[in-house]
């Protein structure tokens, strides 16, 4: 079998997070569970030294087993290899969905902090900001200056898990 272009096959999803949020059927505990899955998924992508560059609820798919997975890796970039996607970045200047893009991503500058910014916007959209401590995570992850955001999604996860622990006490 000869293939000119790579392709990817995955299981069929039930829906995406954007649709679920618009239906307003998720309770706060489910929203927290989904958020943790998203943070774990992006943390894994970053540990493999990739940037997603288009994180948004429509790219978070729900599967039959109630597991949410990140999808649409069409704009993914190796964070350690500038030349790998340099041409694409220069042609379009800014890649991704504007509502979830950090200020620097809108200028065509991408880093881990750009994905962290998108995660903060997603967390706010999920509707968990009223939980004590989550508002601070959102505020820090969406700071205008990248250096004032979390250093990694793993660091965000630590803060998120502390909020969960406080809620369970």
UniProtKB/TrEMBL annotation:
Return the EC number.
2.7.11.1
Superkingdom as given in the UniProt entry: Bacteria
What's the protein name?
Answer: non-specific serine/threonine protein kinase
Under PROSITE patterns, the record lists: PROTEIN_KINASE_DOM
The record's section on SMART domains has:
S_TKc
User: Record keywords: Transferase included?
Assistant: yes
Annotated Gene Ontology cellular components are:
cytoplasm
Which enzyme class, named as a word? transferase
Pfam families per record: Pkinase
Q: What is the lineage of its organism?
A: Bacteria, Pseudomonadati, Pseudomonadota, Gammaproteobacteria, Enterobacterales
Where do the Protein kinase domain residues begin and end? Answer: 1-169
Keyword GTP-binding appears in the UniProt entry: no
What Gene Ontology terms for biological process does this UniProt record contain? phosphate-containing compound metabolic process; regulation of translation; response to stress
Keywords, in A-Z order:
ATP-binding, Kinase, Nucleotide-binding, Serine/threonine-protein kinase, Transferase
Gene coding for it: pknL
Recall the GO molecular function terms of this protein's record: ATP binding; protein serine/threonine kinase activity
Q: Which organism is it from?
A: Arsenophonus nasoniae
